[in-house]
Amino acid sequence: MHWLFGDQLGPHFAGPGEDGPARDAPLLMVEARSVFRRRRFHRAKAHLVLSAMRHRAAELGDRVTYVRAGTYREGLERAARGRPVTVHHPTSRRALRLVRGLPGVTVGPARGFLVPMADFAGWADGHGGRRLRQEDFYHWVRRGHGLLMDGGEPAGGRWNLDHDNREPPPRDTAALEVGRPYRPREDDIDDEVRHDLDRWERDGDVSFVGRDGPRLFPATRAEARRALRRFVTHRLATFGPYEDAMLAGDPVMSHSLLSSSLNLGLLDPAECVGEAEKAWRAGRAPLNSVEGFVRQIAGWREYVWQLYWYFGEDYRDSNALGHTAPLPDWWNDLDADAVRANCLRTVLAQVRDTGWTHHIPRLMILGSHALQRGWDPAAVTDWFHRCFVDGYDWVMLPNVVGMSQYADGGRMTTKPYTSGGAYVHRMSDLCGPCDYRPGDRTGAHACPYTAGYWAFLDRHRDRLAGNQRVARPVRQLDRLADLAEVREQERERGDAPP
Predict the structure, then answer these.
(1) Where are the alpha helices (DSSP H) in 241-301?
(2) Residue after which a domain boundary falls, among 108, 137, 158
(3) Are residues 278 and 301 in the same domain?
(4) What is the DSSP letter of 237?
(5) Residue among 168, 170, 185 at smallest CA distance from 245
(6) What's the rounded Cα separation, in Å, for the pair 85 and 50?
(7) Domain match, 432 and 388 both
(8) Is 492 exposed, middle or buried (0-12, 13-18, 19+ CB in 10 A)?
(9) Same structural domain for residues 382 and 432?
(10) β-pairing verdict for 27-32 and 64-69
(11) For the residues of 348-382, what is the DSSP string, one character each?
(12) How far apart are the C-alpha atoms of 93 and 87, rounded to whole Å?
């Protein structure tokens, strides 16, 4: 019997191979209620995961034993009845400890990623194990897999075209000419899942956050393939230049919306980057857009997965800046209506309503605010894990601890990723209707991001003064005539919604 976790739903997890189940081997899936009891997940995320699991079970038919149980251990005991069980390497340390501690369970290598863990460990050890820069890793993956290569050189002569992909949003948003993203249609299984979630909440068994409207993301392999085709055909060409831009009225823009499908195992990363490269070679998409998309998957996603395992369990407790403040209730409840700052109110509402927003709002609006306020990075990591449809422990731990909150002190990134309101103003249309002014540090219209940025640098000036990438603004602190006022203003603000 081969056990499929809820994020191992594509055919590449159930198919035979040296490290996989025998052909036509019986399969097991366990829907464990304990997962939702432990954390207050976003309702749309819970719906998506359960819908995807039940859809997969329906596709597999008699080949799968689908067990609804209180815990994974209980479900396994009921279904396996002492028979030996195989399972692919799970995607979280907690799940790995579980399966390794169960009698009769054999754990095989991970699937659904481009690089085997042992290969990455060899590469990382060869780089000293500390300064493992994503750009070096990305070059290595592209060479090893022949991605966007012309012989031994990168296509177009440059590895990274990020410089071409930092355009602010166009004033005329119609100029994007972006095709609509793929949106699935719900069915009886979706209705059943929603009914069960309603019942669990009424019974007080679980509690969710956020809204659960019509399902927005694929729950089946067929839906995920349609979403990939729609992106490559109608949206990839315009993805690159504006991938870092933000629009209040169009939170999706040209983004692929494939992260949840990849992280559920419905899509394999190799097919995603392969389809994108084929579009470029056929002249259907420019190189800067294709390279940006390939870098997201073969570079960043793969890098985050590998660092999650390579850095070890102690990485979870990293807190180099000593941030310990708890997350306020308005943040935990996704109470966007309590927020005056238009950028944060808009992005928090996107998370509340959909369980998703793209990487720049995550990093430079949500993560930046948490960093400036000094919130506990472990709590911030847990929040991102619970509140995003594509959030998993392996996804959020390096992304939040390492990049967003700089809690590892620079093991993963070279600087803290935070900014004042000027960046938000340049890269979005969110500042225009706001009560605050991005250029004001103090006063009634002081931008909370601008004031928060300088207050953050001030608190950590001793640590950051030696960082070449932020040393210049740290030196500017002593030239701010209103620095004392900024400090007092930030103390008074506390964790009230800005």
Answers:
(1) 259-263, 269-281, 287-294
(2) 108
(3) yes
(4) G
(5) 168
(6) 23
(7) yes
(8) exposed
(9) yes
(10) parallel
(11) HHHHHHHS---HHIIIIIIIHHHHHHTB-HHHHHH
(12) 14
Is the same domain home to 383 and 474? yes
Domain boundary among 270, 293, 310: 310
Tell whether 352 and 427 lie within a shared domain. yes
Count of domains in the chain?
A: 3
Assigned token pair, 363: 């990093």
* pTM confidence score: 0.96
Tell me 29's DSSP state. E
Model confidence over 74-133: pLDDT tens digits?
999 999 888 899 999 999 999 999 999 999 999 999 999 999 999 999 999 988 766 788
Starting from the edge strand earliest in sequence, which strands make up the sheet with 105-108, in order?
A: 64-69, 27-32, 2-3, 85-88, 105-108
Q: Are residues 445 and 346 in the same domain?
A: yes
Contacts of 237 (CB under 8 A, 6+ apart): 279, 284, 285, 286, 289
Tally of CB atoms within 10 A around 476: 12
Q: How far apart are CA 24 and CA 12, in angstroms?
A: 13
Say whether both 320 and 302 belong to one domain.
no
Looking at residue 14, its pLDDT comes to 85
| Residue 364 in domain | yes
Letter string b/e over residues 116-155, b meaning 16 or more CB atoms within 10 A of that residue's CB = eeeebeebbeeeeeeebebeebbebbbeebebbeeeeebb
Nearest alpha carbon to residue 66 among 155, 110, 6, 17: 6
Distances (CA, A) of 83 to 76, 106, 300, 347: 10, 11, 39, 49
What does DSSP say about strands 2-3 and 27-32: parallel, antiparallel, or unpaired? Answer: parallel
User: Is residue 403 domain-shared with residue 301, that is, in the same domain?
Assistant: no
198 pLDDT tier (thresholds 50, 70, 90): very high
| CB-based contacts of 93, cutoff 8 Å, min separation 6 | 313, 393
Domain that holds residue 87: 2-108
- Nearest CA to 125 among 368, 311, 343, 1? 311
Query: Does residue 195 sit within a domain?
Result: no
In single-letter form, the type of residue at position 197 comes to L
DSSP secondary-structure letter at 397?
I
Q: What is the DSSP letter of 344?
A: H
Query: CA-based Rg of the chain, rounded to a whole angstrom?
Result: 23
CATH code (residue 98): 3.40.50.620
pLDDT digits (tens, 9 = 90+) for 460-496: 999 999 999 999 999 999 999 999 999 999 999 888 9
- Is 274 among the domain residues? yes
φ, ψ for residue 238 (rounded to 5)? -100, 5
Please tell me the distance from the alpha carbon of residue 62 to that of residue 85, in angstroms, as a whole number: 18
